[in-house]
């Protein structure tokens, strides 16, 4: 199991001059939410679908993470069984040069069901410093209302 160390920021709008290295669509559902999170995800990249099972443990800045690729049939079976509405978003990957860390990758998520854009930066060490670019807004690392599982819960119909 690996360690995910991540900071999250709000973004008002995607700047026009960004150097976007990749873009793909994500659709994800949850089997468990809370401190222990279990999700399944479909990622569509260049018209090819990839499917993942992810387990995360912890809340906020630093969490344990295990992820593995699964078959499309497994993903479909789980979706049919849980009958939930997936959280969908477009992810943009943006290389970022930073004086403190050298090169980092910004994952910029634009949510389809919400008027929300969030930038995430994964750090190698919990003591790493990060200077956000000017176009980043408020830091929301650890704020429950900006977590994917919280957003997913908001779109579920009881």
In this structure, how is the largest beta sheet organized? Answer: 8 strands, antiparallel, barrel
Helix content range = 10-25%
What's the tally of helices? 2
Strand content range: over 45%
Uncertain runs = none
What count of domains describes the coordinates? Answer: 1
Structural class: mainly beta
Write down the CATH class: Mainly Beta
What does this 3D model show about the protein?
It is a single chain. By secondary structure, the protein is mainly β. The chain has helices at residues 72-82, 148-154; strands spanning 2-10, 22-32, 36-45, 48-57, 62-70, 87-98, 102-111, 117-123. It has a single domain (2-154), classed as Hypothetical Protein Pfu-838710-001 (Beta Barrel). It is globular, with a radius of gyration of 16 Å. The protein starts with a strand and ends with a helix.
What's the layout of helices and strands?
Layout: E1 2-10, E2 22-32, E3 36-45, E4 48-57, E5 62-70, H1 72-82, E6 87-98, E7 102-111, E8 117-123, H2 148-154
Antiparallel strand pairs: 1-5, 1-8, 2-3, 2-6, 3-4, 4-5, 6-7, 7-8
């Amino acid at each position: 199991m690996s360690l995910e160390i991540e900071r999250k920021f709000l973004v008002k709008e995607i700047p026009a001059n960004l150097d976007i290295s990749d873009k793909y669509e994500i659709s994800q559902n949850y089997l468990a939410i809370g401190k222990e999170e279990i999700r399944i995800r479909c990622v569509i990249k260049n018209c090819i679908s990839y499917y993942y099972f992810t387990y995360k443990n912890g809340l906020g800045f630093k969490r344990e993470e295990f992820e593995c690729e699964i078959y499309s049939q497994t993903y479909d079976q789980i979706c049919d069984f849980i009958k939930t509405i997936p959280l969908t978003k477009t992810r943009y990957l943006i290389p970022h040069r930073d004086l403190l860390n050298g090169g980092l990758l910004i994952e910029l998520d634009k949510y389809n069901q919400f008027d929300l854009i969030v930038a995430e930066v994964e750090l190698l060490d919990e003591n790493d410093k990060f200077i956000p670019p000017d176009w980043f807004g408020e830091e929301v690392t650890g704020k429950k209302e900006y977590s994917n599982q919280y957003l997913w819960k908001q779109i579920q119909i009881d």
